[in-house]
Amino acid sequence: MSSKYSGINLDSDEEEEIHPNIDEKSYKEWKRRQREQKRRELEQRLQEINSINDPGEEMIEEKNEIERILKPSYVCLDTESFRIPSEDSEKDYIQELEYLIVHNELDNFIELMNQSKINMEKFEVVVLHNLAEQIKEGNDAGGLILSKISLYAKYALSHGKDFLLKLRAQLTNKEKKKQFEEDCRKDFEETKRMFLEEFGEHVSAKQPSCPEQ
């Protein structure tokens, strides 16, 4: 059973490589604010659980999961994970991303990762850059797809291949598949809100063209 906190990572991104088209300072500040907001939410939830006199087993498991996330972690990924360095340091992963935009189910992501050498950190940056562009353009449909792909990449980085395989098995259940799609939508809406709050003054609203008279 996958946790509702799966994929959350509060570690710093100091060593993350930034796409050349993204302002590094603004991007890192945006990511930092995302982490801090999530940290505050988790700390608040932890306080709520600790205030309950007799929490049930499910709530105790939730508490343990939150405490694990809040504690600084140093994850060692084995050879079965997707964290594989690319032989081509200049690879831009646009071809892989274009494929996943059309074929964006988890099966497609796993298959592509098995067949290609992917530096997942760089790939995630490419996805986030394109997600930001879709938000700026007001393209929610494209943004939602890219948000889903970014979740796949985040899960691959933080939990590895085994987690994705377990998640794929879970998603064969129609109700869980529906819930996952809803979670993806909520994640996109939250990302969009935070992006517009941070960069809203620099984003020109996409105006509808006037029909010819």
UniProtKB/TrEMBL annotation:
GO terms for molecular function: protein kinase binding. Residues 3-89 form the Cdc37 N-terminal domain. Residues 18-29 have a biased composition (Basic and acidic residues). InterPro entries: Cdc37_N_dom. Residues 1-34 are annotated as: Disordered. This is Cdc37 N-terminal domain-containing protein. It comes from Encephalitozoon romaleae (strain SJ-2008) (Microsporidian parasite). The lineage of its organism: Eukaryota, Fungi, Fungi incertae sedis, Microsporidia, Unikaryonidae.
